[in-house]
Here is the input.
Amino acid sequence: MDKRNIQDILNRVADHSVSADEAALLLREQPFEDLGYAKVDHHRALRQGIPEVIYGEGKTAAQIVGISSAMRERGQETILVTRLDDAKAAEVGGTLPLEYHGMGRIGVIGKLPAPDGAGRIAIVTGGTSDQPVAEEAAITCAALGNEVVRVYDVGVAGIHRLLSCLDDLMAAKVVVAIAGMEGALASVVGGLVDCPVIGVPTSVGYGTALGGVTALLSMLNSCASGVSVVNIDNGFGAGYLASMINHMEA
Here is the structure.
């Protein structure tokens, strides 16, 4: 049950097509559903404004189909499935209307909502190798009702590339800065814009990049104000937080 379903119920109470008692029953019905292998949280959108997202890694295709089907039966129109590999996506897509984005290992079941955030979210990467994490963030943002601007391969090794995109960065409501190696991109972007910057360290890099730990520590120690940091390769977490920020005014 998402916000649109809830609003529809409330509108029906207002026009007297549904009684208050009937509406209370609809809203109370089974806040979670026990499928045996998963307890589907149908009231998450009611509590948090965003419905449950399915983490695909470690789940079978049949389990993903089962959880998604339960959500669809309760009126959820858009379902996000993260960390989804090609083989599972093919199986799920044989049963449900899945749009799969292989680079970001992320899928959307159902239709994308129209953007209803306060502004745009800019997704910025240091290099092309960071794009899988960036696409996870970008598709997450789109599935949660945001307009997304992609600014890829503008790392500090050629900072003129980043500076040529200042219009997109300065017009954004939130910027997600994604980089591996030494992770300097988040600090540079943080020093240029007047909006929140979410740093995403990636596991891209040689030797002492330490699988993203170096970029993580660099971003955590950013001298630019207004920079927050999520976990290594966590494009979904960054996209989710960016969407929350972008919807605060709306």
User: Anything to note?
Assistant: DSSP finds eleven helices and eleven strands in the chain. The chain has a mean pLDDT of 90. The CA atoms of residues 183 and 215 lie 4 Å apart. The longest helix spans residues 61-73.
